[in-house]
């Protein structure tokens, strides 16, 4: 889906598909250097990270494994509840594994800070984070993100996996949602 297909629902275009792919390539080059000689386990956080995971995994030139977790901290609104629940757990034993959490966006940071602690407690050799977007102004806890794509303003964004009430995930780029959509 293109921006033009939902132009009435969009307040501002932030990143095109090309800009996102260029950023993912840039992050991939760093990841390849840092994990050279290791087999990294990419842990995608459903459902928002599906697009980042698919593109990052294919861009990387080192061997990887993939696993998925689903956690919930949001309902259909636009504010983080701070309550994290595991809806789907990993199938992989993390003992001794180098884990790279792949996230779409860090808003309050509550979800990721909880998730990192949870995965570390399972005996992983290392746990790092790759997040395509971060909203620094919305941070409620400090999260150390080793691979960060773009810093964005504190607005509700959709596209490239990010939804509002399950809509707009298939938008190719990333845009600020027009307030009338959720008002
Ligand atoms: P946090 O716990 O506040 O950092 O929230 C993280 C999760 O909230 C992300 O993985 C997204 O699923 C969701 N989220 C946060 N901000 C946005 C947004 O602007 N658009 C869509 N989803 C968002």
UniProtKB/TrEMBL annotation:
<dbReference type="InterPro" id="IPR000836">
    <property type="entry name" value="PRTase_dom"/>
</dbReference>
<dbReference type="GO" id="GO:0006178">
    <property type="term" value="P:guanine salvage"/>
</dbReference>
<keyword id="KW-0460">Magnesium</keyword>
<keyword id="KW-0660">Purine salvage</keyword>
<keyword id="KW-0808">Transferase</keyword>
<dbReference type="InterPro" id="IPR005904">
    <property type="entry name" value="Hxn_phspho_trans"/>
</dbReference>
<dbReference type="GO" id="GO:0032263">
    <property type="term" value="P:GMP salvage"/>
</dbReference>
<dbReference type="InterPro" id="IPR050408">
    <property type="entry name" value="HGPRT"/>
</dbReference>
<protein>
    <recommendedName>
        <fullName>Hypoxanthine phosphoribosyltransferase</fullName>
        <ecNumber>2.4.2.8</ecNumber>
    </recommendedName>
</protein>
<keyword id="KW-0547">Nucleotide-binding</keyword>
<keyword id="KW-0479">Metal-binding</keyword>
<keyword id="KW-0328">Glycosyltransferase</keyword>
<dbReference type="GO" id="GO:0004422">
    <property type="term" value="F:hypoxanthine phosphoribosyltransferase activity"/>
</dbReference>
<dbReference type="GO" id="GO:0005829">
    <property type="term" value="C:cytosol"/>
</dbReference>
<keyword id="KW-0963">Cytoplasm</keyword>
<dbReference type="InterPro" id="IPR029057">
    <property type="entry name" value="PRTase-like"/>
</dbReference>
<comment type="pathway">
    <text>Purine metabolism; GMP biosynthesis via salvage pathway; GMP from guanine: step 1/1.</text>
</comment>
<comment type="similarity">
    <text>Belongs to the purine/pyrimidine phosphoribosyltransferase family.</text>
</comment>
<dbReference type="GO" id="GO:0006166">
    <property type="term" value="P:purine ribonucleoside salvage"/>
</dbReference>
<dbReference type="GO" id="GO:0000287">
    <property type="term" value="F:magnesium ion binding"/>
</dbReference>
<dbReference type="GO" id="GO:0000166">
    <property type="term" value="F:nucleotide binding"/>
</dbReference>
<dbReference type="Pfam" id="PF00156">
    <property type="entry name" value="Pribosyltran"/>
</dbReference>
<feature type="domain" description="Phosphoribosyltransferase">
    <location>
        <begin position="15"/>
        <end position="164"/>
    </location>
</feature>
<comment type="pathway">
    <text>Purine metabolism; IMP biosynthesis via salvage pathway; IMP from hypoxanthine: step 1/1.</text>
</comment>
<dbReference type="GO" id="GO:0046100">
    <property type="term" value="P:hypoxanthine metabolic process"/>
</dbReference>
<dbReference type="GO" id="GO:0032264">
    <property type="term" value="P:IMP salvage"/>
</dbReference>
<dbReference type="GO" id="GO:0052657">
    <property type="term" value="F:guanine phosphoribosyltransferase activity"/>
</dbReference>
